[in-house]
Fold this protein.
Amino acid sequence: MARKLWRFHGGLRLPGYKAISTARDAVPARLPRHLVLPLTQHIGEPAEPVVAVGDQVLKGQLIARADGYVSAPVHASSSGRVVAIEERPIPHPSGLTAPCIVIETDGRETWAPLTLHLDYADMDPSALRNLIREAGIVGLGGAGFPSYIKLNPGPGHKVDTLILNGAECEPYITCDDMLMRQRAREILQGMTIMRHALQAKQCLIGIEDNKPEAIAAMRAAVKALGIEQVEVVVIPTIYPAGGEKQLIKTLTGLEVPSNGLPIDVGVVCHNVGTAASVYWAVIWGEPLTSRFVTVTGDGVAAPRNLEVLIGTPVQDLIEEVGGARPGLRLIMGGPMMGFTLSGADVPVVKATNCILVAGPQVVGDPPPPMPCIRCGACTDVCPAQLLPQQLYWYARAKDFDKVQDHNLYDCIECGLCAYVCPSNIPLVQYFRYAKTEIWARERDQQKADLARRRHEFRLERLEREKAEREARHRQKKAGVSDAAGDDKQAAIKAAVERARRKREAAAPLGGADSAPATSDPATPAQDDQKE
Amino acid sequence: MLLNNPSSPHVRGPLSVNVVMLRVLYTLVPGVAAYVWFFGWGVVINISIAVVAALASEALMLRLRGRPLMPHLTDGSAIVTGVLLALALPPLLPWWMTAVGAAFGIIVAKQLYGGLGYNVFNPAMVGYAMLLISFPREMTQWLPPETIAATFPDFWDSLRYAFTGVPPAPIDAITMATPLDHIKTELGLNRTITEIKAGNPLIGEVGGVGWEVVNLAFLAGGVWLMLRRVISWHIPVAMLGTLGALATVFYLTNPDANASPLFHLFSGAAILGAFFIATDPVSAATTPRGRLIFGAGVGALTFVIRVFGGYPDGVAFAVLLMNMAAPTIDYYTQPRAFGHGRR
């Protein structure tokens, strides 16, 4: 039975270069000498180290605990000794350094004691989520959002559909493809656990039609495991079909609202790799210590997928696939959305799906930009249904209000507009620029507002104190010393009145300041009592 | 490590401005060939003069504006302007008029507005409109199609006439109005379409003799351009649809006082205009709905000018008028962004 599919706007069939890394099965990568584990491998707060330099650690042992709600713990991906906790280069577009725990491996791969949960079906969804949280699982599709949060629909939300994202749409990347071919059962069992945690009715697994082996493997596994209400859905290979919102639209016809989340339309979407990690974490108690990574591109001798320990330096992986010629560009992720690495000394993190080593044939510098001829090619391909050329004009003119009017924040930076632009305009860079500029302005605006409000409060306080002083003087002159009770009542009344006035004055400026405003009047009231 | 362009996307599609312009040029080839077949070498001479004049003006202006010559002179846009202008001109026009039209289009309508991508008006049509207003007599003298002409200038006659003004035969023996112009004039004399058509060798099966084939050839090229996605379907379909629909309504109301819709589509510049001129991306509307409105506007104005206006063909003025409206149309036809609910 062919399921009805929906078409999202735009998109493009990109030339595929996936076959070069799928010729051979994925194998475990060699154990590196050193593992470098950044404390931030996810969206949210950095984890907090719980080991010290010199400590012996076992594989799977917690070495940094989650700090905050949106955060994920970090575990040692192999056994060894902590040799440093220091700033190291991390994979980030800016080439930043960040605190990392460095482990010298001992080659023994000794596991920490693990707790099995073969009985997960009897467990409470929230207990399941805790297991997943403690295993340090974040989305393995590339964004790195802590997964347990997405498994917590929250009150008032019912989950109708759990979608597994097997639509790996970037050219070159094949780690999910190979994982589906080689670990179909683990993925499906992980999916069953997630479904239990979400109490989702049905599960859909979206796979692009350029991965026939993965489709066959997943279908066979569904059959073998005999899971109900699960469907492997073949979708057309149109970049960016793997974008979460695009995949949901393709499979269900539902559009995730602009400022909303998939849960708003009753859908939760997880990457297939995440599902496999959930399986290992829940059933076998193993935290996230490794993942599939595609090491590919025309710059390496023998492209393939490797099962890589988190923290393995990129250099080690490149050497393992035959080494790269010098003078090539190193990209983490795919050619459309990946970012350039400043060097090969950065580690693989949880969100690393691909190391692309490409020469000038593939990523050569584009010809210089020409003026926009408003051909509309960008509009035709934009999956967010935006008008990239208008956004470009407004961004160039620094007309940020208009940029927001034209829904800049719906841009998913898929790169298609710049890809098709005949004038070689780096559109995505303009949009990133506009986004950061708007954020910066908003921050400045907030600072200015705060300063203005502080100033206004100060003036008001000075005036109030003056008025109170004068009132006390008058009171003293009048010599009223008895009727302390009345006095107290009057003071309270006055304080209430002041508070009310202040609230009214402060209201249009926002509620944030109502707290100091109401607690303040207590002080003069006490002063009155003392007299 | 190459770091000159570290930001994604790291790969580029095959399209470039030159490629776009080149595709436009070679999809014009069948139409041009048919045009030359029926209306002689004057067409080729016009194209050559207009292209040379356009490139020279472009080079001159780039130099004056202190811009680099190379990427801009070779981007193909000036050549396209020259060719499109030439295709709108009568085949035997004095060379300097052709040159002045092309230069005016490039210098005033394009470079003075900021060059490629910044022009508000279609440069070829600005050149054409300027010539039509300045030299109305020369601009409406067409050759009869070679297949029915008594005398027809050969290549050397045409060349000599264009450059020296020496006609190959008495001028009124070789020039006449276009079918659209002819019908308009005759209708003005209160003759009926049937009377006008009867025994007139200029009028063919559906449009003017020769014009039908030329327009079919332009149509073929235009459709190919559309299928290759160099242009979107919106403007041509909206323009020809509106023109055809209006013509049909009038034709059905009074077939004796109104030319048939097919005559409207296949006698003048409607097809060339719909696929190659109104679709000029720089000066047209760009949103999908905007393009529909833009195309419909061009179609309606073309019809109104042809039927009620003072000029035999209205495509050029219709395009220019809609060029003015394009920014406003774009502003009010923003598409609904993903996840924003229906509007």
Summary: The CA atoms of residues 241 and 299 of chain B lie 8 Å apart. Chain B is about 60% helix and 0% strand. Chain B has a mean pLDDT of 89.
